[in-house]
DNA sequence: GCTAATTTGTTCGTATGTATC
DNA sequence: CGATACATACGAACAAATTAG
């Protein structure tokens, strides 16, 4: 699966999102995964990396990853199951 | 507005929700406020207490209060505006 | 079938940024 | 301007479901 290797330049740059009205970090993750799904790189049924892996890949906290996954779940793009993981949902209609 | 004086017996009882499959704390807040809105105790345009106040009233952390408010917002029951507060939304249709 | 490891779920606390009053 | 209020973000601990061995 596509893994987006984006990393912040410095870990100390903790609130870059605010400085110049940049997108929040969790929203970047949401957009990133959404794009991958819409582009077909991530297909229905595909398993996303674990939260632990995503925190490393994106360089942000588990809190924000969970937040992003929750939003994606609300939007029906993914399904998350305790103990299993998160999976790309099958589109409706 | 209706303020529900529920408090956990002891602050140390941090994960009672799991012990016997109780509803998560944030979900209790969601249900509580939802009930008040549906019962008409909270009317459209009414301002909810601040997050700080809600943490005291419910005896849970700001994290969980924010989480609950976010869910209520997603469901269209309330509207939250930075610097202003949360307000009961006007029902659609 | 049991156990350990993995993975998500819930919860707390705290710090800093931004908008509004 | 100062106080108030929400937004974003980090880290950590423990619970519960699932999977791996």
UniProtKB/TrEMBL annotation, chains A, B:
Signal peptide: none annotated. Keywords: DNA-binding, Transcription, Transcription regulation. SUPFAM superfamilies: Winged helix' DNA-binding domain. InterPro entries: Bact_HTH_transcr_reg, Tscrpt_reg_HTH_GntR, WH-like_DNA-bd_sf, WH_DNA-bd_sf. Pfam families: GntR. Residues 23-91 form the HTH gntR-type domain. The keyword Protein transport does not apply. The keyword Mitochondrion does not apply. This is HTH gntR-type domain-containing protein.
């Amino acid at each position: 699966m596509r893994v987006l290797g984006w990393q912040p330049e410095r870990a100390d740059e903790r609130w870059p999102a605010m400085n110049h009205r940049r997108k929040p970090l969790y929203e970047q993750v949401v957009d990133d995964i959404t794009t991958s799904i819409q582009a077909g790189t991530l297909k229905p049924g595909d398993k996303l990396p674990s939260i632990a892996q995503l925190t490393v890949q994106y360089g942000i906290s588990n809190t924000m990853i969970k937040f992003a996954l929750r939003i994606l779940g609300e939007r029906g793009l993914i399904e998350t199951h305790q103990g299993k993981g998160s999976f790309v949902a099958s589109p409706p209609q």
